[in-house]
Write a structure and sequence with these properties.
Elements (H helix, E strand, L loop, with lengths): L1 E6 L4 E8 L2 E9 L11 H23 L8 E7 L3 H18 L3 E5 H6 L13 E6 L4 E8 L2 E7 L5 H11 L7 H8 L24 H14 L13 H30 L3 E5 L6 H14 L2 E3 L10 H13 L17
Parallel strand pairs: 1-4, 4-5, 6-9, 9-10
Antiparallel strand pairs: 1-2, 2-3, 6-7, 7-8
Helix pairs in contact: 1-2, 4-6, 5-7, 7-8
């Protein structure tokens, strides 16, 4: 099926056309207005989606060389995410499907990330364990077969990506902070600062990153930097790089060790990464090293499919529509939708 996918769960307005698992187009319009506020402002996000949704969808169709009438199904994210942002893409998708007389299906944003590895080659073979890690979510999922998956563990408080952004804000590195921390960490000493690792109770596959965020805050205060990123002393680039490397190492250590525990429990040999934080070079490198040591195969999406994108929504929409899982036009946005 040739599926048009629409994604507007946060601050990316995206549309894509996917046919038989092949990406014909994937257009992403990012909203840089949020950088001035150090995080996503929900009202500004929804307004930006309203301004851009038509041109983004038109561009996705143009790049795919497809007319609207040639689309065989339409998929749109209906949760989780910012409710105002979700409503823009969801209602646009429903209206377009109704007007064209095409089948429509709502897609769980996290399922989009979970199956984003199938947009790249090579793709993982089922069964596999997937670490889905982003700004809003951190979870471990066992994928037994296409569209048959089980949640093994998830964050109990802050997501890993959220911790990256908040620590970056403390350091005055701007928003989004994850890529900046990753870049600085490449030249830093990961052992310079002994930040704590939270593994929770023994055997748990859940995550908690609120503690590491607080630990960084207290360290910065003791070292002469306040939580607004204002240096009271002299901070050179190497010092900042060491802090970033130490923080990133603490987060990555937990992510890798929890993932390997899930691998041991399920007995799988394939491991996948997904979500915005899966683009982090430190995480990819650490996961590849551990996978090689254990004789596992590691998979990660192409960088363009790590971030929020319409292609992953179109792909999952295709899986749903092939199973005749259409959604009613009364489908509502669900900002707290679970996997």
């Amino acid at each position: 099926m040739r599926i048009l996918g629409i994604e507007t769960s946060c601050d990316e307005t995206s549309a894509a056309v996917v046919e038989g698992g092949r990406v014909l187009s994937n257009v992403v319009s990012s909203q840089w207005v949020h950088a001035a506020y150090g995080g996503v402002v929900p009202e500004l996000a929804s307004r930006a989606h309203q301004r851009r949704i038509v041109e983004v969808v038109d561009e996705a169709l143009r790049r795919a060389g497809s007319e609207k009438r040639e689309i065989e199904g339409i998929a749109a994210t209906y949760g989780p995410g910012l409710v105002g942002a979700l409503l823009v893409g969801l209602n646009f998708g429903k209206a377009l499907a109704y007007g064209l007389g095409k089948p429509f299906t709502g897609v769980n944003h996290m399922e989009g990330h979970l199956y984003s590895n199938f947009l790249s080659t090579p793709a993982p073979e089922c069964p596999f364990v997937s670490l889905v890690v982003s700004g809003g979510h951190t979870m471990l999922v066992s994928v037994e077969a296409p569209y048959r998956h089980i949640l093994l563990g998830q964050t109990r408080d802050d997501a890993a990506g959220e911790a990256f952004d908040k620590v970056a804000k403390m350091l005055g590195l701007g928003y989004p902070g994850g890529p900046v921390i990753d870049r600085l960490a490449a030249t830093g000493d990961p052992g310079a600062v002994k930040f704590p690792r939270s593994f929770l109770e023994e055997g748990s596959l859940d995550f908690s990153f609120s503690g590491i965020k607080t630990a960084v805050l207290y360290y910065l205060r003791r070292a002469g930097l306040d939580e607004r990123g204002s240096a009271r002393g002299t901070w050179d680039e190497q010092k900042m790089a060491d802090i970033c490397a130490s923080f990133q190492a603490a987060v990555v250590d937990v992510l890798v060790r929890k993932t390997m525990t899930a691998v041991e429990r399920t007995g799988v040999r394939n491991v996948a990464l997904a979500g915005g934080v899966s683009a982090n070079s430190g995480l990819r490198r650490a996961m590849e090293i551990e996978a090689a040591r254990r004789g596992l195969r590691i998979f990660a999406p192409a960088l363009e499919f790590c971030m929020d994108n319409g292609a992953m929504i179109a792909y999952v929409g295709g899986l749903r529509l092939e199973r005749d899982l259409q959604s009613p036009m009364s489908l509502a946005a669900d900002p707290s939708l679970s996997l």
